Amino acid sequence: MNEASARDIRGASPYIAIKNEPAPKLIVDPPLPEGLPQGIFWAQYRVENLHIVPVFGTGARQVSPRVGHLHITVDDLPWWWADASDSNTIDIAGLPPGQHKVKIELVDPNHKVFPGQVVTLTFTVPGYKSAHLH
Length: 134
What we know:
By secondary structure, the protein is mainly beta. 4% of the residues lie in helices and 39% in strands.
């Protein structure tokens, strides 16, 4: 049995520039059902061909391996927030019962969306009675 190398699992070394980097890719799982009855949206995610880090600005667009972060919008509200934590799970609490939509965008250091890298999840929060959500 061949064991996967560190490069196979973690990607390229940050010490060597990558020529012709493949396009970044965002993969988001459906919300975890355990949180929804409490009004909590948890969705695990991962990215390929990009490192999520809190680095912003024009100069950061030239970094190799490529860097970026997530923008998250809830229910088509006019504002979003940036998540540069690479925490593996998006965590949104306090959602009232009913249908909701969360849009996750993979963006570059200047907040420009990578083409085709937007995932929108629609889900329903059932009625709940707990005042303590987290």
